[in-house]
UniProtKB/TrEMBL annotation:
Residues 16-330 form the Enoyl reductase (ER) domain. The lineage of its organism: Bacteria, Pseudomonadati, Pseudomonadota, Alphaproteobacteria, Sphingomonadales. The keyword Oxidoreductase applies. Keywords: Oxidoreductase. SUPFAM superfamilies: GroES-like (SSF50129), NAD(P)-binding Rossmann-fold domains (SSF51735). Pfam families: ADH_N_2, ADH_zinc_N. It comes from Sphingomonas psychrolutea. This is NADP-dependent oxidoreductase. PANTHER family: PROSTAGLANDIN REDUCTASE, PROSTAGLANDIN REDUCTASE 1. The keyword Hydrolase does not apply. SMART domains: PKS_ER.
């Protein structure tokens, strides 16, 4: 079997030589274990953090060891109760073509009649991040004006749709005309191309003008930096900011310059960090509500697919250059 390992800790943007594809002997199956042929592998921005040797909410990847990540595959051998050959399962031993792990560490896919890879995106970890981040962490309510960055990505595109299905007004920011068109097609009331000329704060104010609003009630932050500053500049009294990610700084050590930080105080803006794993206990609600919206045609899946295990690093690096629309996936 084959697996990707981290060979060197990246300095700034990772390069090809930081990764190696190794051959591993197939492990014999112990009692209670299953063998899974991975069909779909996830690449996610948080994996960049695990490449650094720093203490965080997940331990760093060990050098020379297979990396981990979300994966969906088919059980091809089972010595675990309740899991049969042919079952489609999700688990955490990604970045490889075959996984051997205890049956207690795989989950059968929920019965929602969608293609399996959607449980890595819209109906998986990024979808849960969007749903719980917007509704629980930011406490967004019908009628709120929601601003979301990286709005054409896996989390952002779901935030747009959950907000619209919940009766909110949404402004999305994304890089380039095609991505902005997608965000509009998902129901956003206004879009900002952050890569076009001019300061972001002005573009956000223009977008607010277009929809007849003075400011934002909720900011769902996937990016940090200038996006967070523009959100601060337009935050209404008692606005709520869910800080989900700061992809703008994952590959750099540059300090952020937030000109509008002090508006946190004047406008009593509440800013809260968001971690999807805190909300996993509410997964049943997520599948029920999202499954309902899906059946009503209120949710649309978008994904970008790279072909073959060899393409893993390329797909991963594409996250930082805007190479994906919707969820970035690798099909094994
Ligand atoms: P995406 O599918 O959104 O992919 C990343 C996108 O970010 C790219 O397509 C690109 O889109 C945009 N981007 C990259 N660099 C920059 C930049 N410097 N400035 C602005 N936009 C940039 O990834 P996910 O949906 O998986 O993740 C989105 C965010 O959510 C990340 O910050 C991630 O770390 C975070 N996250 C946090 C979780 C939590 O529990 N807290 C869980 C899951 C995700 P474009 O072309 O528009 O620039």
């Amino acid at each position: 079997t084959r697996a990707w390992t981290l060979q060197a800790r990246p300095n700034g943007m990772p390069v090809a030589t930081d990764f190696a594809l190794i051959e591993m002997p197939a492990a014999a199956l112990q009692d209670g274990e299953v063998r899974v042929a991975n069909r779909w592998l996830s690449v996610d921005p948080y994996m960049r953090g695990r490449m650094n040797d720093v203490k965080s909410y997940v331990p760093p990847f060990a050098l020379g060891e297979p990396m981990q990540g979300g994966a969906i595959g088919e059980v091809i051998e089972s010595k675990a109760d309740g899991i049969a050959v042919g079952d489609m399962v999700q688990h955490f031993l990604g970045w490889r073509d075959e996984a051997v792990l205890p049956g207690t560490q795989v989950q059968k896919l929920p019965d929602l009649a969608v293609p399996p890879q959607q449980f890595l995106g819209l109906l998986g970890m990024p979808g849960m991040t969007a749903y719980f981040g917007l509704l629980r962490v930011a406490e967004a309510k019908p009628g709120d004006v929601v601003f979301v960055s990286a709005a054409a990505g896996a989390v952002g595109s779901t935030v747009v749709q959950v907000a619209k299905a919940s009766g909110m007004t949404v402004i999305g920011s994304a890089g380039g005309a095609d991505k902005c068109a997608l965000v509009t097609s998902l129901g956003a009331d206004a879009v900002i191309d952050y890569k076009s000329d001019g300061p972001l704060v002005k573009k956000l104010m223009t977008a607010l003008g277009e929809i007849g609003k003075d400011g934002i009630d909720v900011y769902f932050d996937n990016v940090g930096g200038e996006h967070l500053d523009a959100a601060l500049a337009t935050g209404n009294m008692h606005a709520r900011f869910a800080i989900c990610g700061m992809i703008d700084i994952y590959n750099s050590a540059k300090p952020t310059e937030l000109r509008y930080l002090a508006r946190l105080i004047g406008m009593r803006i509440r800013m809260t960090g968001l971690l999807v794993s805190d909300h996993i206990g509410h997964a049943a609600e997520f599948y029920r509500v999202m499954g309902g919206w899906l059946a009503e045609g209120k949710l649309h899946n978008s994904e970008t697919v790279f072909d073959g295990l060899d393409a893993m690093p390329e797909a991963f690096l594409g996250l930082f250059t805007g190479g994906n629309t919707g969820k970035m996936l690798v099909k094994v």
